[in-house]
Amino acid sequence: MSEHSNSGEAVFAFLLGGVVGAAVGILFAPASGEETRRKIGDWLEESRRKARDFVEEKREALRSKKDQVSAAWEAGKRAYQDAGGSQS
Asked: Are the C-beta atoms of 86 and 80 separated by less than 8 Å?
């Protein structure tokens, strides 16, 4: 279980580092205010898209695991009943 916690922290740290690095890079780049605002807006939109994709990917993986566990549970119940277990 701790492996998942550590990997989540690593992903968060990576994303936070990317956000800070990108913001600093944009703010110190020699560009006009209008161009800088456009770049920041483009970067924010791209970041939102990536975040949505990441969350949806994780939701889909969770749904898949839930379906696998449910199928295994049902198969186990059937096997128990077929072996002469409790009649429910």
From this structure: yes
Q: Tell whether 59 is covered by a domain.
A: yes
In angstroms, the CA 60 to CA 73 distance is: 20
- 64 falls within a domain: yes
For the entire predicted model, the pTM comes to 0.48
Tell whether 87 is covered by a domain: no
Q: pLDDT tens digits, the chain, 88 residues: what are they?
A: 445 557 778 888 888 888 888 878 777 777 777 888 888 889 889 988 998 999 899 999 999 999 999 999 999 999 999 988 665 5
Tokens 């994303």: give the residue.
15
The HSE-up count of residue 67 (CA atoms within 13 Å, CB side) is: 6
